[in-house]
Amino acid sequence: MEFTNLSSVTEFTLSGLSHSHEFQVVFFIVFLVLYVMTLSGNLTIMTAVHMDSHLASPMYFFLSNLSFLDMCYSTVTIPKMLINIFSEKKTISFNQCISQLFFLHLFGGTECFLLTVMAYDRYVAICNPLRYHIVMNHRFCFWLVALCWLAGFLHSFTQAFLTYQLPFCGPNKINHFFCDVHPLAILACADTFFIDMFIIANSGMISLTCFVILLFSYLGIITTILKIHSSEGRRKAFSTCASHILVVTFFFGPCVFIYLRPPVNYSADKLVSVLYTVLTPLLNPIIYTLRNQEVKNAIRTIISALSRPIATMDSEKTYWISMICFLRPFSQ
Predict the structure, then answer these.
(1) For 142-167, how does the pLDDT look when each residue is reduced to its tens digit (9 = 90+)?
(2) At 268, is the secondary structure helix, strand, or coil?
(3) What phi and psi values does residue 229 have, to the nearest 5 degrees?
(4) Cα–Cα–Cα angle for 136, 141, 144, nearest 5°?
(5) Looking at the DSSP assignment, which residues form a beta bridge with residue 113?
């Protein structure tokens, strides 16, 4: 069944997380703090990877890209939510709504593929360490990240295009704090069965592909770790991928709950959405920093460099040191 955009609705109203004024004030403060912490944490990791030569490896190249995606991912939803909390009209135009949906799935889809690539990177590092730097060379890593972005774009374009085709003739109140496929599909004044199934199939194919690669990667990693005779060696090998396992769990769990089912207005959807749009981008830098001594050492080295005269540094280092100066109060 083919839809054309015949919508009479020109804007939507976002219900937000709560209608209570007291809760809205609390939500504004909490989410503003979380957003600032997310930006500062991820910018700190990007700065550390960029400036410290000890982090010039594929794993940290992917980690830096993950931090960038997390910043973009949270920026798609949180600022608009904060603005709407104290706005009389909590509205978003039709085109802005579709744009928000597009970028949400662009960054989310790209992150999904990137996490899968990072699992493959850990597989090569642990299961084939002698060929690691040959296989995971700079050119190959660059193309892997580029393919992640291309796949994310194709996924988000499909989701946004199909949603754009739906006709909306009222009501126009979205029971969510941002625009997404399921909350919008519920408002469509047409039979959305075909589009619903296509969207689920699209998300399911991506989830299944990533899950299979993740599964085989970690089966290979676990098998290799169990063959290590030294308990210290097993601990070190496992610690290199434990952080990634946590991040994958936090990211994929809520996404599977939200997207691999038909559009149904569950009251838990808002809470689950907070997990993967707000908390996961915040927790990623914390998980990688707390469990990674190299990253912690790099951050300490950069912060210690703050005592050096700025005038003695080149322009690029001056920029990054200035960034650390700005982020330091938030990271303490």
Answers:
(1) 999 999 999 999 999 998 998 888 88
(2) coil
(3) -75, -35
(4) 120
(5) none
Per-chain mean pLDDT for the chain: 80
**Joined tokens for residue 215:** 């599964």
Single pTM value for the model: 0.83
Tokens standing for residue 70: 């997390």
What is the set of domains in the chain, with CATH numbers? Answer: 11-331 (1.20.1070.10)
Residue 216 has pLDDT above 60, yes or no: yes
Please tell me the distance from the alpha carbon of residue 186 to that of residue 163, in angstroms, as a whole number.
Answer: 11
Whole-number Å distance between alpha carbons of 289 and 160:
35
Q: Which helix (H) or strand (E) holds 121?
A: helix 94-127
Q: Is the Cβ–Cβ distance between 173 and 13 less than 8 Å?
A: yes
Six-digit token string for 329? 């109060």
Q: What angle do CA 156, 162, 163 make, to 5 degrees?
A: 90
Q: What are the φ/ψ torsions at residue 93 (nearest 5 degrees)?
A: -70, 160
The owner of tokens 């700025």 is 310
CA angle 104, 79, 202 (to 5 degrees): 10
Q: Which two tokens stand for residue 205?
A: 């194919």
- Cα–Cα distance list, 63 to 33, 58, 175, 237, 324 (Å): 23, 8, 34, 18, 18
Q: Per the omega criterion (within 30 degrees of 0), is the bond before 171 cis? A: yes
Matching residue, tokens 């700005």? 326
Give the Cα separation of 204 and 237 in Å (integer): 31
The answer to whether 93 and 168 have CB atoms below 8 angstroms apart is no
Residue 139's CB: how many other CB atoms inside 10 A?
7
